[in-house]
């Protein structure tokens, strides 16, 4: 039987909605009776726009039914105009890309769309080599992209992927507008056999022409009441989520969710927060897709448990580690009656760069490691760069926001793809030298940064009761993963789980948290194995299951009651982490400007080439110069610089889009911002091409393009791209 990859697209939550008014979406919330009401603090002209749209919807309902609108829906009052508007203003389409294959779903309706459609991708090019080693080394991702399919009336020449006479013969023309993307590693599907769940879509920080969802008012910890209908829609300009890749799309690197932008100053303005409650409110605004991926027929799962053959530890410690792991992996289903969790991950020793196994706790330094400081941005000679905040007087602060942002900007590289044999763990110094690592390296560095902030009195509120754990578990979409948990004893519902690779943080009670099962919690002096039936953070936080001192829930590697002499007999060494990390100064302004210019010219050149291929011999014109005036380009660059600054600000500044609109008032804009760490030009072009703006075949389409590069220490660059189309109004 030919090997196939099956992707079932099930449903979406919180898909952004087209903002017909062009000034910002209307805000809604639910009152105590569960009815959606309008906020009264929005401008009257926006209300008039929506009243006209509502009347248009009612007229359409009356025309398409025998009776009136009420007869059609079998009720007399309270017609859900908000729901009707949402369904009429977005037609989500999902495009699946894997290797050289592409396919898309039929269009659905509304912000909470449903498909239940299965897409099949052939794998005939893999049939010659389906060995476990080959499959684990595959670095291909399954890309799931979200678009809004817009039908344009006949006579308008705007249609993506259709040109010439064929387009003119269509009753209506279709345009697909990019809203976001997620990626699922193929190796994860192979290792797990089946990957399913609600995946967070990496949406751009700014999506011109669309309204974003805003968290509900007075949101609390009751996650069961945080449904999609209990949120409001924020204004034009942006949608929450760290773009590009979101930011990185394939390996995505989103940071804390950010709000939408509008005339009232929105995009990218949500303050950075470490509060579980605030994070859950922000999480309500994100877009999610429920997807299932599997192989048909199923392939035997690989055995990823590596025996401890060579170790940089005492023989007694190695023997104890083998015994503890065997006990944990066979724990469930024994006489205590715990149900089997074969997919639970337990670790005690991990291989270092030399292939020698090291006790996992030794990767954590009790005093932590100091993050970069603002001294790196203060040069005696000229040309010193601005810090990410964009304000030289603000500096590069050693705080939670800067730590999370810096770690998330370090490029991601899976060890299986890098070393082709097994997982390897680097120290933080090695990680910064290589400038690439997987979940383990990112999480260890973030843990050591957070611990340093605590030890040095820099944690928010100067709270010294916070405890940080390295979390070994399973997450979607990556499978085996490593997170960081921020925990306050006595109040488990305030726990926060950090994905260090992306910079995202999730309140423990958030049902949308990608971490699906907690296997181990690691401290500098011990490891705790989870023996509870349900390892989801939401369940653990509500049941007191995060208390590692509870022996009925957690199995410690070292018994806390063990005497000092017995503990010393294991000869556990000190932390292997470097006491002081060396940071290279960030690139100067000249280097950043050169990279910006290089990327802009590269994107323009390839954009022309992509369009030429679509138009074949027609020689499509790609216009930048007429529309991309110097002043407009500067305005776009200012927006990108402010978005970067807001990523690390506890008091983000409003972003003013009005000057952009003033210079484009005769055109309809559909543009997004992308953000990602710079690795190479090919990766940049892949992200630009994903947006699909090059497929616009309107004869008078003009393109917006601006690039901003923000330097970070150690040769890290945060790249921002403002990219999209501008079409004549009334096309």
Please report the total strand number as a whole number.
25
Secondary structure class reads alpha+beta
The end-to-end distance, rounded to whole angstroms, is 50 Å
Proportion of β residues?
15-25%
Shape: globular
Average pLDDT over all residues? 76
Q: Characterize the main sheet.
A: 7 strands, antiparallel
Helix content estimate: 25-40%
Overall description:
With 731 residues, the chain is an alpha+beta fold. It has 18 helices and 25 strands. Helix 9 packs antiparallel against helix 12 (439-455) and helix 15 crosses helix 18 (681-691). Mean pLDDT is 76; it is low at 21-50, 64-80, 154-171, 217-268 and 332-340.
Itemize the secondary structure elements and their pairings.
Elements: E1 4-13, E2 17-18, E3 28-30, E4 36-38, H1 44-63, H2 69-73, H3 81-88, E5 92-98, E6 101-104, E7 114-122, H4 132-137, E8 141-153, H5 164-168, E9 172-185, H6 186-192, E10 194-200, E11 210-214, E12 232-234, H7 276-284, E13 288-296, H8 315-329, E14 349-351, E15 357-359, H9 400-408, H10 415-419, H11 428-434, H12 439-455, E16 467-475, E17 479-487, E18 496-499, E19 504-507, E20 515-523, E21 526-530, H13 537-542, E22 554-556, H14 564-568, H15 589-615, H16 630-646, H17 658-662, E23 667-677, H18 681-691, E24 702-712, E25 716-728
Antiparallel strand pairs: 1-7, 1-13, 2-11, 3-4, 5-6, 5-8, 8-9, 10-13, 11-12, 14-15, 16-17, 16-20, 17-18, 18-19, 20-21, 21-22, 23-25, 24-25
């Amino acid at each position: 039987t030919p090997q196939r990859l099956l992707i079932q697209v099930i449903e979406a939550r919180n898909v952004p909605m087209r903002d017909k008014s062009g000034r910002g979406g209307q805000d809604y919330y639910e009152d105590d009776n569960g009815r959606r009401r309008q906020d009264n603090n929005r401008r009257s002209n926006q209300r008039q726009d929506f009243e006209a749209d509502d009347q248009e919807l009612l007229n359409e309902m009356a025309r398409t039914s025998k009776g009136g609108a009420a007869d059609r829906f079998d009720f007399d009052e309270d017609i859900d105009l908000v729901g009707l508007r949402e369904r009429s203003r977005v037609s989500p389409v999902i495009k699946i890309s894997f290797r050289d294959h592409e396919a898309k779903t039929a269009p659905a309706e509304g912000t909470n769309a449903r498909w239940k459609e299965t897409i099949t991708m052939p794998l005939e090019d893999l049939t010659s080599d389906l060995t476990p080693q080959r499959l684990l080394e595959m670095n291909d991702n399954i890309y799931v992209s979200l678009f809004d399919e817009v039908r344009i009336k006949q006579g308008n020449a705007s249609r993506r992927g259709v040109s010439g006479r064929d387009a003119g013969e269509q009753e209506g023309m279709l345009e697909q507008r990019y809203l976001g993307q997620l990626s699922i590693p193929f190796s994860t599907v192979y290792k797990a056999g089946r990957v399913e769940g609600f995946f967070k879509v990496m949406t751009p920080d700014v999506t011109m022409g669309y309204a974003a969802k805003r968290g509900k008012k007075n949101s609390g910890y009751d996650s069961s009441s945080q449904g999609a209908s209990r949120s409001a829609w924020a204004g034009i300009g942006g949608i929450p989520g760290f773009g590009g890749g979101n930011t990185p799309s394939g390996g995505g690197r989103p940071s804390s969710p950010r709000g939408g932008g509008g005339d009232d100053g929105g995009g990218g303005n949500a303050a950075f927060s470490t509060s579980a409650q605030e994070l859950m409110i922000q999480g309500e605004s994100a877009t999610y897709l429920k997807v299932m991926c599997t192989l048909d027929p199923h392939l035997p799962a690989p055995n990823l448990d590596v025996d401890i053959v060579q170790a940089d530890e005492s023989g007694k410690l190695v023997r104890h580690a083998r015994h503890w792991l065997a006990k944990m992996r066979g724990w469930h289903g024994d006489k205590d009656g715990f149900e089997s969790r074969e997919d639970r991950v337990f670790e005690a020793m991990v291989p270092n760069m030399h292939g020698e196994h090291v006790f996992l706790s030794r990767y954590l330094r009790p005093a932590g490691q100091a993050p970069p400081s603002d001294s790196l941005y203060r040069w005696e000679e000229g040309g010193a760069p601005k810090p990410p905040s964009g304000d030289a007087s603000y500096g590069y602060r050693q705080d939670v926001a800067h730590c999370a942002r810096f770690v998330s900007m370090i490029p991601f590289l899976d060890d299986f793809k890098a070393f082709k044999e097994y997982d390897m763990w680097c120290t933080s110094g090695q990680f910064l030298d290589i400038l690439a690592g997987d979940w383990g390296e990112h999480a260890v560095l973030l843990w050591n940064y957070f611990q340093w902030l605590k030890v040095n009195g820099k944690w928010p509120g100067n709270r010294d009761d916070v405890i940080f754990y390295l979390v070994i578990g399973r997450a979607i979409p990556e499978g085996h993963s490593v997170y960081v948990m921020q925990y306050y004893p006595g109040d488990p519902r305030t726990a926060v789980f950090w994905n260090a690779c992306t910079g995202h943080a999730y309140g423990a009670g958030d049902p949308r948290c990608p971490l699906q099962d907690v296997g181990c919690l690691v401290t500098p002096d011990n490891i705790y194995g989870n023996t509870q039936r349900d390892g989801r953070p939401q369940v653990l936080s509500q049941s007191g299951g995060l208390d590692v001192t509870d022996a009925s829930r957690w199995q410690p590697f070292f018994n806390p009651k063990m005497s000092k002499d017995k503990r010393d007999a294991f000869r556990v060494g000190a932390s292997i982490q470097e006491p002081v990390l060396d940071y290279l100064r960030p690139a100067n302004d000249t280097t950043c400007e050169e990279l910006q210019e290089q990327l802009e010219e590269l994107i323009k050149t390839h954009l022309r080439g992509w369009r030429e291929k679509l138009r074949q011999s027609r020689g499509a014109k790609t216009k930048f110069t007429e529309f991309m005036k110097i002043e407009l380009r500067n305005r776009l660059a200012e927006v990108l610089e402010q978005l970067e600054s807001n990523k690390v600000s506890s008091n983000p500044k409003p972003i003013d889009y009005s000057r952009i609109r003033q210079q484009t008032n005769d055109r309809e804009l559909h543009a997004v911002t992308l953000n990602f760490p710079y690795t190479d030009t090919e990766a940049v072009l892949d992200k630009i091409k994903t947006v699909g703006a090059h497929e616009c075949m309107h004869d008078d389409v003009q393109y917006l393009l601006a690039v901003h590069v923000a330097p970070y220490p150690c040769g890290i660059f945060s790249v921002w791209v403002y990219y999209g189309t501008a079409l004549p109004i009334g096309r």
